Amino acid sequence: MRKILGAMLAAAMLMAAMPAAAEPADVAGAFAMDDRAEQDTALDESRQPVAVLGFLGLEYGDVALDVMAGGGYYSELMARAVGPEGFVLAHNPPGVVSQFNIEQIFAGRGIGADRVPNAASLPLAFDDFVLPPESVDFALFHMVFHDLWHEAESLPRTEPEPFLARLYAAMRPGAIVGIVDHVGPAGVDTRAEVAETHRIDPTVIRQVMENAGFVFEEELSLLRNPDDDHEASVFDPAIRGQTDRVVYRFRRPGRGD
Fold first, then answer.
1. DSSP strand pairing (63-67 vs 136-142)
2. How distant, in Å, are the alpha carbons of 4, 34, 53, 115, 117 from that of 142?
3. Which of 33, 119, 110 is closest to 82 using CA atoms?
4. In a domain, 256, yes or no
């Protein structure tokens, strides 16, 4: 398995040569493609992917990592937006892959096939997460950063700090990490809050990212919702899809800093 994974990653890095000059990814073009699944387009209004990825700074030709990609909503968009010179690694822990039939879902999307050839599934446990040093230009945590504190049968307990250290090593100097997540109350135990509501205190996000060496750059307020009192589970039908969410852009220092 490790040999197969290593060969796949090497192929991805070779396929995704860096462009001569930075150029924004064609997120709007990917978003407008008429073959997107109905279940994806139903989520667009809540997620606002064109604005989010535009703010975060995805670029044409990027090697992008979709951390805990789930069924691949963002993986597909990013792969099409970075173009044939870019590549997307759609990560999920193995327990999540098996529980939610992720490989079947990816096959339906055409991930790694004719429809989305410049993307591949990356089934790695958080504790086994190692990528080639300085190989990734862009990483996205879409409503999953809190899962670094989550514990479930399909998601064994991990510690955020070692994982983020390995992520830092995988990012190129100047690379971007974007985090979108549900806002939770301040001053509470993070694991307990995640277990109950799947929310996280934004100050915890900033603290652990900055402790890992990433630099906070900016916040996009587009997905903030002052009517969310941060008490209900994000799966509560009364608030699902409308939670108060932060959108943070972090960067690994380097490349002209």
1. parallel
2. 27, 23, 11, 23, 22
3. 119
4. no
Domain that holds residue 122: 2-251
Asked if 201 and 188 count as a contact pair (C-beta separation under 8 A), the reply is: yes
In a domain, 236, yes or no: yes
Q: Rounded CA gap, 77 and 142, in Å?
A: 13
This prediction has a pTM of 0.93
CB burial class (10 A; 0-12, 13-18, 19+) of residue 19? Answer: middle
User: Which CATH number does the domain housing residue 110 bear?
Assistant: 3.40.50.150
Sequence-ordered list of residues with C-beta below 8 angstroms from that of 228, at least 6 positions apart, any chain: 183, 239, 242, 243, 244
Q: What pLDDT, in 10s, does the model give residues 183-240?
A: 999 999 999 999 999 999 999 999 999 999 999 999 999 999 999 999 999 999 999 9
Query: Does residue 257 lie within any of the structural domains?
Result: no
Which residue shows structure tokens 């070692």? 162
Written as one letter, the residue type at 225 is: N
What Cα–Cα distance (Å) separates residue 155 from each residue in 86, 88, 236?
Answer: 29, 22, 21
Report the number of distinct structural domains present in the chain: 1
